[in-house]
Specification:
By secondary structure, the chain is an alpha/beta fold. Helix content is 32%, strand content 20%. Bound molecules: S-adenosyl-L-homocysteine, iron/sulfur cluster and FE3-S4 cluster (F3S).
Length: 481
């Protein structure tokens, strides 16, 4: 990995004396990219001498990492900030910061609206957080939401090189950020800026360093992850120096010793080529699961959404992935109630979910976002119709998910344990290679826990998970490759 850059003042990773004894907590909303950004902010704060609090009650500094994908997500911030007035007043010297996609969108106006808010940082300005905290300690409030278009964007200490990964087996790795697609409903291009890819040697070095620390599974992140390295080509320029086609990047990561599972999210259907499809049949560690957002099954709506593919093309990709990797599980994101969506359009979506054999999906009611082209479109779908469609879609999906899970019963699978299941009582929960949740009953004193791998027989199915019985009654975890 590129060594941790010498972050120079005023945005330094150097110890900040005045705040060094403070404890921080981070509240995170939104997608995996936001979760990973919070990990990066935590690292920056630890590098500045702060330590993680046991909880928010115990913290001196609270950072809210926000999401604005739907109206509800944005309003969550305003509700949280309202409540934090009391939290801040409880203990002198407490600091509140806001980052992420709402911060990028609203910027310093947030400071005007909430006088107990100390700092605001945008999605390209994570490295400014320690300095803003120091300023806050001196009573200065600030907002940084500038766009950063160079590789410095990625040049953050991902994790403390000396920090043990603990009982953890998986990690996120950013490969690209931003989105140039401008789907008509989506706020992300304005909250994450233009696409930029990280150079491949740095990605490889980070993955190799993670493998050395004991990480067995990596999830490559990017808003349009399989557009990796192509942005400049699409802009009519030469490819970004140091990048390569996504399938080639996957092949390089596949060869890193110790990495047993590779996932990537979220790909866009437009950027599937033969090489990426072949990779699913050829690369030993590429998982048999793709989360491939489709949004709608109606060509008319797909066009209005500016998705740049048809349902037929989506089927072509799904069929090709299945030909390359017959056991592949395909999941997706869907929107109902997009402006102008008729009952027939919606039925096309139901039809697509069935024809594509979606193993699972996240489905949402369309939420108009400020500044997007769909926000001005006519044909608003009444709320109760959108709600009814969402329920019909989810009930069809639930039946399909259960049917898929039932096909898995009787098979043997490898589960990477994440932690206790929702049920608790000694039941562990993890993911199989297909990204399905598998719960495993073990005795409380069993020698397995988070970060371990277990071979299980899949013995029962529900719409939400599979139940696994350990093949080895002694419950010895499966060692690394
Ligand atoms: N880059 C990914 C999507 C990231 S956003 C892609 O291209 O598919 C995650 C999901 O949120 C989207 O797939 C979409 O289903 C949903 N979403 C985005 N904007 C939305 C909106 N305005 N209303 C409802 N759902 C939305
Ligand atoms: Fe949003 Fe479309 Fe970009 Fe996905 S590809 S982040 S849905 S604009
Ligand atoms: Fe939300 Fe921003 Fe992710 S809007 S979904 S946190 S990119």
């Amino acid at each position: 990995m590129r060594s941790v850059p010498p972050l120079t003042a005023p945005f330094g990773g150097c110890e900040i004396d005045s705040v060094a004894s403070k404890r921080f907590a981070i509240r995170t909303y939104g997608c995996q990219m936001n979760v990973h950004d919070s990990e990066k902010v935590a690292t920056l704060l630890e590098d500045s001498g702060l330590s993680a609090a046991d909880g928010e009650g115990d913290a001196d500094v609270l950072v809210i990492n926000t999401c604005s994908i739907r109206d509800k997500a944005e309003h969550q911030l305003y509700s949280d900030l309202g409540k934090l007035r009391a939290w801040k007043a409880e203990k002198p010297g407490r600091v509140v910061g806001v980052g992420g996609c709402v911060a990028q969108q609203v910027g310093d106006k947030l400071l005007g609206r909430f006088d107990h808010l100390d700092f605001v940082y945008g999605t390209h300005n994570l490295r400014k957080v320690p300095a803003m905290l120091e300023q806050a300690d001196r009573g200065q409030r600030a907002a940084w939401v500038d766009e950063e278009a160079s590789q410095d964007r990625f040049d953050l200490p991902m994790r403390r090189p000396d920090a043990p990964v603990g009982r953890r087996h998986k990690a996120f790795v950013t490969v690209m950020e931003g989105c140039d697609m401008f789907c008509s409903f989506c706020i992300v291009p304005s909250t994450r800026g233009r696409e930029i890819s990280r150079v491949a040697v740095e990605i490889e070095a980070e993955v190799a360093a993670l493998a050395e620390q004991g990480i067995r599974e990596v999830t490559l992140l990017g808003q349009t992850v399989n557009a990796y390295g192509r942005h400049d080509v699409r802009r009519g320029k030469a490819a970004t120096v140091g990048t390569m086609p996504f399938a080639e990047l996957l092949a390089r990561l596949d060869a890193i010793p110790g990495i047993e599972r590779i996932r990537y999210t979220s790909p866009h259907p437009l950027f599937y080529d033969d090489a990426l499809i072949r990779a699913h049949g050829e690369l030993a560690h590429l998982c048999p699961h793709v989360h491939l957002p489709v949004q709608s099954g109606s060509n008319r709506i797909l066009e209005a959404m500016r998705r740049r593919y048809t349902r037929e093309r989506y089927f072509e990709i799904v069929d090709a992935l299945r030909a390359a990797r017959p056991d592949i599980a395909i999941t997706s994101d869907l929107i109902v109630g997009f402006p102008g969506e008729s009952e027939a359009d919606f039925e096309d979506t139901l039809g697509l979910v069935e024809r594509a054999g979606l193993v699972d999906s996240f489905s949402f009611k369309y939420s108009p976002r400020p500044g997007t082209t769909a926000a001005d479109m006519a044909g608003e779908v009444p709320a109760e119709i959108a709600q009814d469609r969402l329920e019909r879609l989810q009930s069809q999906q639930k039946a399909q998910t259960l049917a898929y899970h039932e096909t898995r019963v009787g098979q043997t699978s490898l589960v990477f344990v994440d932690g206790e299941s929702r049920k608790g009582q000694g039941q562990l929960s993890g993911r199989d290679p297909h990204h399905r949740v598998v719960n495993v009953d073990v005795a409380p004193e069993a020698p397995v826990g988070p970060g371990d791998a277990l071979v299980v027989d899949l013995v029962a199915a529900t719409p939400h998970s599979l139940l696994g019985r350990p093949v080895d009654p002694a419950l010895q975890p499966v060692p690394r490759d």
